[in-house]
Amino acid sequence: MHKLSWNKITSEERIPQKASGNAGKYRSEIESDYHRIIRSASFRRLQDKTQVFPLDHSDFVRTRLTHSLEVSSIAKLIGKQVCMQVLEQQRAPAEDAPDSLKVIEILNCAGLLHDIGNPPFGHFGESAIRNWFEKNLSHLDYKGKPLMAWLDEQQAADLLYYEGNAQALRIITKLHRLTGRSGMHLTSGVMDTIIKYPVNSLEKTAEDKKEKKQRSLLRKKVGYYQSETKQFLEIKQNTGTMGCRNPLCFILEAADDLAYTFADLEDGYKKGLYSYEQLLDVIEAAQDERGAALLRQGLEEGRQLKKTSEKGFDPYQHAVFTWLTKKQLFSISGVSDAFLKHYDDIMNGVFEQELIAVSREGVLIGELKKFAFERVYNDAAILKLELMGNEIITFLLDRFMDALLPYDSGLKMSEIQEKYIDLLSGNYLNTYQYTAQGKEEGERLYLRLLLGADFVAGMTDSYAIRLYQELKGI
Phi and psi at residue 227, in whole multiples of 5°? Predict the structure, then answer.
């Protein structure tokens, strides 16, 4: 008997639990989640948030929205393959067999949600927010003491290790206002699937003190802030995954890696950042003979097609894009097989590796990631735009945090500071007022600092640039 149960990890319980009414006759609870997600402003904003290439004018290049759709599609396919094999091999007892439709629906929703906490300008936006807190918590004063002196250890660590994954949980459980104060009010199974790191900032800090070889992958980053501790514990209680990952999260993680690895290489080739020959070198270095043969076969097909194709047909691009598509499908099957191979450890909550790393395509995917980092992510144009994003985020945090420090503190605010408060999201301010009621001054300050990060992190790339230009008078 495994520690984790398929019935529990796909829990449809909401927090707080409410009767679904007549709607439950026509759609499942998780289908209801799907409609809540796609109708949310937070999800729509992903269409104007950077995946890799900030502010790109080409319709070809991915955004966070198109990336999330691709992750959702891949996760569903892996989930379907896993469920079919678990059922065929009778790996779970009949009373706790996976419901394939429910698993697929959960992974569909989780794929759409997994990047919803990311700030503008890609992952570099997270670094910019962390850098702001690292620079200012010890230097800015509040009522005669540094900000750090007002915060407890976990509150300070939450800010210093600001993380998009934890921000995603904050958005879906609190910041997004559907009808009440429970965020999107999603099912526990969906919410648990996006909790990639089931630890708080203190647990992450303790893990960092260990030798690198002894550190757990699951404690690499912050999964939830102190402000969402109650919601985190209730989710884990409902799914029965206290102290470990939801098994479906391993599938989501693999889908995310496969989506961005192959998509970023496709986008990078389209932008001329590497050549067919360079990709072939990477494949051969990974000792993937079948993969190398597949790429060469694609080039030969492309040359044959060029004879009958319109002017401008590129056989090398045909070879690269065909290879990326086929290899991604091979990798999906490899991930499904890896899940089954490590099924007992996963369902007992003791598996702590990436499914891709232990799959048959693991070595190749690792080499492709290194190649993408060298040839795509370090492109000068991307680096310049990331630095621009850092300047914008730093400026906005400077201005809005200056207004938020005296807000709701009894201190006198300047007219300028009051105007900055007026620019903040009304929903976010209402959430702050509700959660800050009855709290001591240090915790209210912590919640205001989170509020400033909430507002900036929720911006799209274009809105952040436009607001920066307007406030600077550019």
Answer: -65, -20
By the 10 Å C-beta count (0-12 exposed, 13-18 middle, 19+ buried), 74 is classed as buried
Q: Which residue ranges form the domains of the chain, and what is each CATH number?
A: 1-19+27-474 (1.10.3210.10)
Say whether pTM exceeds 0.85. Answer: yes
CA dist 326 and 336 (Å) reads: 16
d(CA 385, CA 395): 15
> What does each C-alpha distance from 334 to 341, 348, 415 come to in angstroms?
10, 21, 60
DSSP string for 215-233: --GGGSS----GGGHHHHH
**Count of beta carbons in the 10 Å neighbourhood of residue 8:** 18
Q: Which residues 6+ apart lie within 8 Å of 427 measured at CB?
A: 175, 176, 177
Burial class, 31, CB count within 10 angstroms (exposed 0-12 / middle 13-18 / buried 19+): middle
For 458, counting Cβ atoms within 10 Å of its Cβ (0-12 exposed, 13-18 middle, 19+ buried), the class is buried
Bond preceding residue 16 cis, omega within 30 of 0: yes
- 52 contact partners, CB below 8 Å, separation of at least 6: 61, 62, 122, 260, 264, 267, 376, 377, 382
Which residues are 141's β-sheet partners?
A: 146
DSSP sequence for 126-178: HHHHHHHHHHHTTT-EETTEEHHHHS-HHHHHHHHT--HHHHHHHIIIIIS-S
Instruction: Please list the rounded mean pLDDT of every run of 10 residues in the chain (474 residues).
Output: 93 84 74 95 89 54 87 98 97 96 98 96 90 97 96 98 97 85 93 98 96 93 97 98 97 97 92 94 96 96 88 92 97 98 97 96 96 86 84 97 97 96 93 95 98 96 95 89
- Residue identified by tokens 């697929």 is 104
Between CA 447 and CA 194 the distance in angstroms is 23
Beta-ladder partners of 145? 142
Burial of 392 from C-beta contacts in 10 A (0-12 / 13-18 / 19+): buried
Query: Could you tell me which of 171, 130, 146 has the C-alpha nearest to residue 394?
Result: 130
Structure-token pair, residue 239: 């799914």
Give the pairing of strands 145-146 and 141-142.
Answer: antiparallel
Do the Cβ atoms of 119 and 457 come closer than 8 Å? yes
For 173, other C-beta atoms within 10 Å of its C-beta total 24
DSSP 460: -
> What residue has token string 């989930």?
79
Q: For residues 112 and 37, what is the distance between their CA atoms, to the nearest angstrom? A: 8
